[in-house]
Amino acid sequence: MERPSLSIGIEEEYQTIDPETRDLRSHIQSEILPKAKRALHEAVKPEMHQAVIEVGTKVCRNVQEAREDILGLRREMLQLASENGLLLAAASTHPFADWKVQDIYPDERYRQVVEEMQMLARANLVFGLHVHVGIEDRNTAIHIMNSMRYFLPHILALSANSPFWMGMRTGFKSYRSKVFERFPRTGIPDVFANWSDYENFVSLLVKTGCIDNGKKIWWDVRPHPHFNTLEVRVCDIPMRLDETMALAALIQATVAMLYDLHASNKSYRIYGRALIMENKFRASRYGMEGKLIDFGKEEEVPLKDLMWEYLHLIDDEVEELGSRQEINYIHQMLEMGSGADRQVRVFNETGDLKKVVDYIVAETREGVFETTAATRQRTLG
Predict the structure, then answer these.
(1) CA neighbours closer than 13 Å in the CB half-sphere of residue 208
(2) Which among 213, 173, 164, 189 is positioned nearest to 24, based on CA atoms?
(3) Which residue, of 15, 57, 69, 281, has the fewest CB within 10 Å?
């Protein structure tokens, strides 16, 4: 069995913010998108709402190459936003924006989504992080997807960065995941026997008019319909570049670990969707501060304790992939708290959601124009 390339691709969705009101503002009146397309070509594209802009790296051979690429994209978008009288923010919900007044990007594809999903589409004002890992053999991708499902709540808890919605403190650390779950074909996928089983499922949906192609399957992890990748879509977009890279490295190392098991005719224990959904709810509600169920022990375990076990599980792969620096940043994330924890902290201190937006905007720039501790250490190393 030939080892997959484990190449990596990262997509980030940013908010475009009005510097006066701190509310979301459409970027469509500005020149930001055409200028970005001239500079970055296919690496940037609009999303359904006009205050969302998405960037995506090229196919990268390793985490270091992906860091360089996403760093360049973030820097370019921050500069373009600034030149066009906007701010850029990386968080999975805006603290107080009202989806009812947000414009939809004028595109036939989005018009069709709104026509089909109606209010669900208009209310889907959320921002995500997607990580692709290259797995060339489609059967292998399905087997790894089945096992990967177990780890998705852990990854979500680490990324949680959406505690506010329309001016309200939701009580959730990842409210984005609850908003997006209203769509069909979202959340944790079922188990598939092989690629043929999955293709039959997609073909049935197409044949019966549910979807026109596999891209309208929006699960938390999916085999990408056009690329030979496994795409992990469960994450909130974190504020800091270093957090994005830590999550990307964690996902890549997890895929590598699961592939090594698969290649040895073993697999990580497969759990039912309903059980994993219990953990996903806990992750979205409590984030890093909560407990997940250890199904093997049949008991609740603090997420931070589980993360230590998780990191130990992938340690050999981290060494092989050369992503130690990125993975080590997870320790710092566990200490400083998730983006949601930090947003809530700022709100508790100031009582002002505009100050929370200012904090998100500042954190989005962290490590992009100045050297971070992680980058310094890599340079010195």
Answers:
(1) 7
(2) 164
(3) 281
Q: Which amino acid is at 348?
A: N
Buried b / exposed e along 321-344 (16+ C-beta atoms within 10 A): bebebbbebbeebbeebbbbbbbb
Q: Kindly give the pairing relationship between strand 52-56 and strand 8-17.
A: antiparallel
Task: Single out the residue of 47, 22, 19 nearest to residue 33, CA to CA.
Answer: 47
pLDDT digits (tens, 9 = 90+) for 236-280: 999 999 999 999 999 999 999 999 999 998 888 899 999 999 999
Residues 142, 284, 130, 102, CA torsion sign: positive
Name the token pair of 272. 């039912």
| Assigned token pair, 35 | 């200028």
- What is the C-alpha to C-alpha distance for residues 257 and 148, in angstroms, rounded to an integer? 10
Q: How far is it, in rounded angstroms, from Cα 236 to Cα 254?
A: 18
Structure tokens at 187: 């959340």
Answer whether 271's CB lies under 8 Å from 150's CB. Answer: yes
**Residue 253 neighbours by CB under 8 Å, 6+ apart:** 314, 317, 318, 321, 323, 327
